[in-house]
Design goal:
By secondary structure, the protein is α+β, with helices and mostly antiparallel strands. The protein contains 2 helices and 2 strands. Strand 1, helix 1 and strand 2 form a beta-alpha-beta unit.
Length: 65
């Protein structure tokens, strides 16, 4: 199941380096991780567009089956 990880960042929230989170979640390098602020429409859109680009890429390479 293809997915992206969205880190909801907002003021005063603790922040961790992306690679530290990748290691803690045991995610492979091909899984996108991105920071966003879900209170902002454009930020939420960017997460969905990242997922759509991933799905398109997988479909084009035949990896989405």
């Amino acid at each position: 199941m293809p997915f992206v990880v969205a880190i909801n960042s907002f003021p005063d929230a603790p922040r961790y380096p992306i690679e530290e989170l990748r290691t803690a979640l045991d995610l492979s390098p091909d899984i996108p991780i991105m920071e966003c602020d879900v209170r902002r429409r454009a930020s939420s859109r960017d997460v969905l567009m990242t997922l759509m680009r991933l799905l398109h890429s997988l479909a084009m390479t035949g990896s989405l089956t």
